[in-house]
Design a protein that fits this description.
By secondary structure, the protein is mainly alpha-helical. Helices cover about 60% and strands about 5% of the residues.
Length: about 230
């Protein structure tokens, strides 16, 4: 990975732009992953599983009901595409993941800098950084510089409208219903991918990856038993 603002040739394309493989993308994804994982651990510790509407993807209103462990599963997939030697064209879920990770990370930098510092201290990549408003601005700029249309933010609004009105607005904004299928599919997911740990390379340490899988498995089991 390059230095904080420098770039390498990113392997995932968002709209027409490649997401830069730099320290900023690592910071955004790592903070989003660890913050969500920590909240999952809290719900297990205090046996509070009634409200699972938390996690980094709640930054996208349409995806607020996605279970937290599934949120981390898709984050790991987007990260794997990002660091892969192969090229991937990001779908709407990938766009939502990048947006949500950057927005959550920026807000935590502003509101809980000590937590951010703790998250970054023991990661697989060296990240000596000043946690300040400049970093928050750079994290937001990371997704704002991508030339997507923000369709992942419009889906929820269209769903609340009568079909005729929704169709008119979709045509006005050039909304592609076929791209939205991945977002609807995500709402119905529950199980974890079997190769989760391998998709967090360079994002988590091996110990963090194994521990995360155990915590998510416990969360799934506890939720299933309670339902």
């Amino acid at each position: 990975m390059a230095e904080r603002g420098g770039t390498m040739a990113g392997m995932i394309t968002i709209a027409n732009d490649k997401l830069p493989q730099n320290l900023l993308s690592y910071i955004a994804f790592r903070i989003a992953f660890l913050d969500t994982m920590e909240r999952i651990s809290w719900t297990l510790q205090f046996e509070s599983q009634d409200d699972d509407r938390f996690g980094f993807l709640t930054e996208v209103p349409f995806l607020r009901s996605v279970p937290p462990h599934v949120q981390l599963d898709v984050l790991a997939t987007t990260w794997w595409k990002h660091i892969s030697d192969d090229e991937f064209e990001g779908d709407l879920v990938d766009e939502a993941v990048v947006y949500a990770a950057c927005e959550l990370a920026a807000r935590l930098v502003e509101e809980e800098p000590a937590v951010v510092q703790r998250f970054m201290e023991r990661g697989p990549l060296a990240a000596s950084l000043t946690v300040d408003h400049d970093l928050a601005a750079e994290l937001r700029a990371l997704h704002l510089k991508l030339s997507n249309d923000g369709d992942f933010l419009l889906i929820g609004q269209f769903s609340d409208l009568p079909p005729v009105e929704a169709g008119r607005l979709k045509q006005k904004f050039g909304f592609d219903d076929s791209r939205a299928e991945s977002m609807f599919d995500l709402l119905g997911r529950w199980h974890l991918s079997p190769n989760l740990a391998s998709r967090t390379e360079y994002l988590l340490t091996p110990e963090e990856g194994n521990r995360s899988f155990e915590v998510m498995r416990d969360k799934m089991t506890g939720s299933w038993q309670k339902s």
